[in-house]
Protein 1
Amino acid sequence: MTKHDRKIARTHDDVFEEIAEALDVPPSKFKEAIERYESLGTWLDRDESTLSAYNPGISPQGSFLLGTVTRPLTDTEEFDVDLVCLLKASKTEFTQKSLKAAVGHEIALYVRAHKMAKPAEEGRRCWTLHYADGAQFHMDTLPALPDEQRYQAMLKRYGYTDLANDLALSGQAIAITDNTLPQYDEVTDDWPQSNPMGYAAWFRSRMTVQLAERKRAFTKAQLVTASVDEIPDYKVRTPLQRAIQLLKRHRDCIFVDDGAHKPISIIITTLSAHAYNEELTISAALHSILTRMDQYIEYRGDVAWVANPVNPAENFADNWAEEPRKRQNFYDWLEQARHDFGLYLRASRFDAVPQELIDSLGAELVDRALKAIIPAAASPLAAPAIVKAASNNDDDVRRAEAAIDERRSAGTQSKPWAKS
Amino acid sequence: MTLEEVKAAIAFDQPKLRAARDGPNIHVGGSYLLFENGAVAKPAGPISEFDIEIVLSNRFPRHEPKVFEVGGRIPRCADRHVNPDGDCCVTVWEHWLACATDHSFAAFLNGPANEFFLGQYWFEKTGKWPFGARPHGQKGLEEAYADALGIPNRKNDIIYHLRLLSKDWPKGHWLCPCGSGKLLRHCHRDDLIALHERIPPRIAERMLRRLKSYTR
């Protein structure tokens, strides 16, 4: 990068963009992760694979797919890449246990063939692949079978006919395994279900305009001739995705000592996507989200309900009833987030991030971002307070005049008087 | 109005205010940030800040909040629309209740409170009130009520309208307030019904009471 193309922040959004960009998976790691899971997919589908008859496919799910991944708090922690391993088979051919074992067998061969240091680790629902320390990520692979018909039948049973008939939202539902269930080793139709692709389609639908807009800007900036449809989603980030990254980071910092009770990402992501209204900027998105996200928590009787948008019968907050602390932590976090982000956006100049927000996003992260895009931040001689002192009073008067004009044209609500 | 609702209203938009329960009331205090309406963030931060305290009844918006400027920035005199105890005459409350559709605390902060402090800022700089100012005392009250009713500022007309509107249903056999001499049911009945929806009896009664308190 030359002196001339260095980014210089001029707004709060420039600063947030820089911080959020630093929360992304670094492009090299992103590429590496894609190569690794594609390599696993190729392995599972090779001629000698015991699964090849089932046409296995590997695809990302979760925050990696949604574009809302956030960097772990420390470099010793790893990115979490969630994958689905889908076999084109039916539940008459497998029990949950035999599916998990079949996928686990091939993953174990893959680990051995690639001389990976650690064996794959079995979890309740998935297999975790650990890579060498330098990789900085691990992959959770979820064995699954197609299950859209039973999923759609379930939706219809609960009265969600429109959802059931919407193939984008319910047509890619899957059956997954859970080794804690009594029917884990039985041939049965009664498997746990999930719908990560449907959720991703719903999430994308909440930002369609901005996603296309960002892709258009991307093609323009990169001087490429591809159409907007040809640009993969992961190449761009919308204000919704950026806002979620910032909120998840804020959550991680606030609950650094209480990770077990922090608000979970799917709740933050779902409520944020509901509250987002295609705002053009990160700051406007944060305003909408933080002031309205709690309105999307339903109360069904006394039970707080954060409905899965592609299966409203599923409550993402189902454990709030058993652990009221989690519910309280969500509301406490929301109040803190409103205050911290508001303090920066409403009460501060763009180049003077308040200490409260620095503390709740991580001093190192914010400091690095500021130094990268605010020349004054790199120099101890030019602190924001000095910049503030130099601000032009005339500018404030001009702004007030514009604010008055705007108020007049919108219709004022009041005039001062004197009671006596 | 609960403490949680007040906290939710100020947490993002007015992050330098803090709310706490104070007996039957809610006390809000700190710096009120003066901003362009609808702006989330401006690169230079807020236009200005005023140190304020607000005392809110839990019956807000039926009970008018008291707003005090406590930083000593605004002289405490009628010409600056501030009482000697620092109580700011932000607006004629019933006028706002009658004319605004959103009566939430957030709407109050972004509406009348913003206009009041923007006006104070502008007066500091220019000596002029940007949105005008009402006469003091009863005259200002009458002007505000006439504005809210959408009629010329004549005291008797205002009172007659308010008496009509104070009824659960405007009486058709009363004379029309337009002065035509016809019964209401044969004249501006529909207009008055529309006004009745905007200014319900409890607000009209309150306006009447307040006007009478000045007359006594």
Note: Residues 137-215 of chain B form one domain.
Protein 2
Amino acid sequence: MIAIRGLTKSVPIPNASIRERRFILRDVSFSVPSGCLYGLIGPGAAGKSVVLKMIAGLMKPDAGNVVVDGDDVTELSELKLQSVRLKLGMLFQNNALFDYLTVGDNIAFPLRRLYHLPEDEVQSRVLERLACVSLQGFEDRMPSGLSGGQKKRVGVARATVTKAPIVLYDEPAAGLDPVTSQKIFELLREEQRASGATVIMVSSDLDRLLTVTDRVGMMYRGELIFDGSTEEARASDEPRVRQFVHGLTEGPL
Amino acid sequence: MAVQVSSQSPGPGAGPAPGAIAKRAETLFGAVGGAVLSLAETAGGMGVLFGRVVARLFPPQIDRNELRRNLYKMAVKSLPIVIVTALFTGAIMVIQAAPLVKRFNAEGLLGWAAGFGTLREIAPLLTALMISGRVGANNTAELGTMVVTEQVDALRALAIDPVTFLILPRFLSIVITLFVMTLYADILALLGAAYTGLALLKVEPVSFYNSVTAGLLGIGDVTNGLVKSVVFGFVIAISSCHFGLATTGGAPGVGRAVNACVVASATGIFLLDYLVSFIVK
């Protein structure tokens, strides 16, 4: 269970007075029940990635808290946060692959560093993950030699290799062709159902995202303007939600 | 036609309006305050990072693979530039001393003349500046790139402490590299000096060696330089790691961080060289 209450974050405005600040999150509250696949949608710079980073304890809010399975991550020190992060898998918007490691070593990294598994088991799990994201035979390639979509798929493989009970995906299908994108969404959904993991997924690919989510939240300019089931999102009368979900060009956005 | 002048308008000889003075003062205080805050932030950041590194040494939590990888990258790959720098440094010391040595027929003191400044000052200082430019700048660029591409955040999200995994091995590697490279530089600089003495002054290397070991130079001269190398290693390590981790603003931010690291390292090296020279006799 992830419970977010009143998250607020502001940053200084460059070349402005020290008192002038820009809000990137303003009183954001929502909950994600255990085993739920929650989609976080919204236009660019709405604060979606910031929310994911705060759930992982990578950023501290100015106010509010994030409770992950009973632990308030906003109150924990960096060392104590490690026990919470062991429950997390995370895909970053820019993939964040370690560029000095091969694809295989990137995926194996958490298994070797955190779980100290036997090498044959590490290798079999790496190959299984690569097969899931259709990258068989890529284990010895370096990230610098991959396309954007391939990097994204390696990121997905690394985020899921530990079979963490909570997984955060920031744009899992960005840069992928429609077929691969659909495959990735279906794969992530199947794995979530099989493992019962709690998943929060940020994506701009609404057509596909809304086919797999249980609940949806929409953010706009740092505020959560909608929180409900996927069906409620599709049927919403809120003008901004309606325009965004249905991809209308006319409207308040 | 008469023009009515407002009683509030400044006369022809009046200075700037009080509002303008206040605005200028605010700008001046803002600039000074900003600079002081920035300096305090940098010094504080370095202090906190150093504290975190030291905390990971008790008990030692060192990733041996990372330490080995960094030692190879920083020390082994720096050998060519250290060899070239040291050989020519020794040669230059002899070239500078040559006219006086000839004038006073002091060939027997050539080893001391070249060795004293080399061991105590020139070898550690030039090696530190070379390592700062090659290793320190590279370290900042690598860490800065890892920060702006979210690789450091990815480590944290994987429950891996970046200070233990990334910073501690780099910190130790830089300090060890500088110590070992200074030792090499001492030997190579004396070698360069000896053979330049042979070429320019016809001083046999054996005579040169005898004048180095005759008693005018002692182990204290070598130790002095090596103590400096460790201090310089700390400066380069903490500076390059701090500016790397503090990088913001994408690729241009990495460039700014490297620049700040090189300037801060060089300044720190000269400042601490003065202090160590003063304290360690």
Note: The longest strand of chain A covers residues 21-32.
